[in-house]
Structure formats: structure tokens, C-alpha cells
What does this fold into?
Amino acid sequence: MTPAHIADRFAYHRATPQVTVEQHVQRRVTELGDWVMARERIYLDKCFWIHLRAVRMNEPSLPGASALMASLAAGVSAGRLICPVSDVLFLELMKQTDPATRVATAELIDELSCGVALSPEPTRVATEVAHFFHANVGHSVHPLEQLVWTKVPFVLGVQHPVSPAFAPEEQLVIQKAFFDHLWEVPLSMMVETIGSAWPPESHFDNLAIRLNRDNAAHAASMKSFAQVYRDEINGVLEIAAPIAADVLEDMARKALSPDIEPSAEQRETTVWQCLGLLRAAVRKPVGKRALRTLHAGALMHAAVRWNRTQKVDANDLFDFHHAEAALGYCDVLLTDGPMHTLLKQRHLAIEREFPCRVMSSVGDAAEWAQDRFARRVDDADAN
It folds into this structure.
């Protein structure tokens, strides 16, 4: 963003003080959602980005990787597809210890993602819950698929600068202009700016240990996959219930009075009521589709528990989050062999639950992409 462009954004925001920062963010998100939904969305997990990076850096690569790279690049250039990223992919990228390959991966992501990311998982879940409640009381809502996108600088969430040195009206201008500035920052610039300052720790290691311990402790009580899934989805909905309560309380403030503040007892009652509503919702296909991130996660964790001999590690948990992001909002997921095998288990019924094609073979993905994008681009050029 040039100095002149920055100055223009400041002038624009000073002329529109009636627009809150929340409204401004939502406007940019829905505009981006329109743009994204006009394209096919191909989600690559870490291993596929590494395959394509090898091609870009002229290193040895798997058969088909070069053709896949060419087809995806052609599809992006023609405006037919994007390869969006997610919070968990960003975290995996920052785990790469070699600065050269990390920057090369980031530059490739900038090219194929066009800077587009899915909103971080907590935000995505909150969006799904809010959309479900607003839609079910008859409010006019945008399609859910339009509301879950952001740009890479906000892949871990949106934060706004706050300083008591500025008057409230000037702080609002700064917040909106700062958001606009970050909206255009590429991932490669972020990676170079962060350098080696990113902490290498991941809480997934401890989480995997706890999950394996709990799964072993409850293995004897498992009678069917359906029962294991119910246990998993009921558990994660306990996390979503307070979010739903926040939504209902916000709706009440807007409809009745902005000063409504429930007591602790009322709040607890609302949370329990919301938990009941959410559990009733996921018994039906429409509810599972509405709460798709939680549904996908519950299916995968149930599949691991149902296979009593399988243990998870931190990398598996990263893969679960990749799949949760892709299954709900992308047309294709390119992942590794073990995750592909897990998702293809008959009792998960992934093809029925999610309109997302899953592939793990680089060669198969290349053949599909060539037929889907490269040849069509060639035909368009010929005409």
C-alpha cells in the first residue's frame, strides 16, 4: 500500500465516522466472501505445499508435482481457483526452522492463495453458531460460506490498535485504516518480519498425550461408532454453548434494550438451554451442516477412538484441523495418505456429509487439476 493510498484511506474513514470498526471489518469480509465463492477452493495441507515448493525451488520432487504446480498456477491466473490457507497451516509454516525454505513456501502461498485464508477456527465456530441462531429466528443473513474468509494477516484473529493518546473519533479512523493496511500485507512479508521470533512450542503435544490416555480409559465402554460420535459431538458442543448464549444475549440487547445484563444464574440457564438446542440441532442433517466445523472434528476424533489400537500425535491433530477447515468450505482437500485413509472410512460417510473431494496422491491430483483447469485455460486462450 503506497503512502498516497494510505492517505486516501485515512481521508475516507474520517469522512465516514458513522461506520464502526466492526461494521467495516464485516463489510470487507463479506466482499471477500463474494470474491472467494466465485472460485473453486483447493485446500493443500503442509505436505502438498512442500511438494510444490520443491518444484518452485528446482529441487527433486514427486512425479506429477510439476504438472500440479502448473495447473494450479494456471487456474489461479485465470481467476478460476484459489488455494486458501488456515490458522493451522500458518502455525506449521512457522515451525519450519530454515528461513530460506520458510520464505519460499510463504511466497508460493501468496501466489496460489491470493492472500486468502479461512478465519481462525474459534472465529469460524462462533460464526457458524451465530449464523445458525440468527437464521433460525428468521433474520436475513448472508450465506455462511461467505462469512468465514479473511486475509492472511488476520489468520490468527483480528486485533485493533488501542491508545489513550488519541481521541475516540481519531482512534476509530486509525483502527479502520490500520485494518485496511494489514489487509494487503503478503504472508512472505509477515514471515520475514517475524523471522526467528516465533515460539516453537505447540500445545498439541500435550493434548495428544491426554487424548490417548482418555481414549484408552474409555475404550471398554464403546459399543458402536454412532455412540462414540455422540460422545464426541456432545463434548465439543459444551464449548459452543457459551458462544450461543452470547449470541442470544446480543440479540436480546438489540431487540429490547442495550442495557440488558443477565445475572450469573440467568447466564447459566441460558448456556444450558443453548446446549440442549445445539444437541438437538446436530441430530439432523441441516444442523450438522450448519455446525460443520464441530461436526467434522467430532467425526475424526470418533474414528480414532473407534480404532482402539490407534494413537494420535501432534501431527495428527494438525491434520485434523486442516481437514476441519477444508471439508466445510473447500471443494478439494489435498492431504497425506493416513488422513485420506481415515476420511474414507465407511462409517464417517464423508462424501455424503461434505461436498469436498479428498485426494492424497500427487499424481492423481495433477491429473485431476490438468483436466479441470489447465486444459480449460488452454481452450479459453484458443478461443
User: Anything to note?
Assistant: The radius of gyration is 22 Å. The chain is about 65% helix and 5% strand. The chain has two domains: 3-117+148-201+363-382, 204-353.
